[in-house]
Amino acid sequence: MQAGITKEYLKEKNLCRVTFRCSRIAAPDAKNVSVVGDFNDWNVYAHRMRKFSNGDFAITLKLRPGREYEFQYLIDGMKWENDRNADKYVKSPYGEGEISVVVA
User: Fold this and answer.
1) pLDDT digit string (tens) for 65-100?
2) What's this model's pTM, rounded to 2 decimal places?
3) Which DSSP string corresponds to 39-87?
């Protein structure tokens, strides 16, 4: 499994299929990882990722192309993690940190 974000544009449906991957390196010993962002109103329960036998987590979402989406991974309901392979980062409104951005 490849780390980071992959994208596939679906012309007939005007959608971008985005696969988010959180590696076992970013989430060692994690039981649960969710991708949380403005595409799901920052709902920590909306998109729980599937855990693979190698310890990586992944989920594929269909997003509208031509937009930027802020997101982070929530690990075991306690730790927020950015994607090292995000398209860019923006300043977090909640302190000094940054938030990952995917451009669909």
Assistant:
1) 999 999 999 999 999 999 999 999 999 888 889 999
2) 0.92
3) GGTT-TTT-BPEEPTTS-EEEEEEE-TT-EEEEEEEETTTEEE--TT-S
**Burial (CB count <10 Å: 0-12, 13-18, 19+), residue 92:** middle
Closest by alpha carbon to 12, among 70, 67, 54, 62? 62
Please state, in angstroms and as integers, the Cα–Cα distance from residue 50 to each residue in 9, 19, 85, following that order: 22, 11, 19
Tokens representing residue 72 in the block: 């982070």
Residue at 63: amino acid letter: L
* Spatial distance between the Cα atoms of 23 and 58, rounded to a whole number of angstroms: 8
Q: What is the dihedral of CA 80, 84, 86, 91, to 10 degrees?
A: 50
> What are the tens digits of pLDDT across the range 26-58?
899 999 999 999 999 999 999 999 999 999 999
CB atoms within 10 A of CB 53: 6
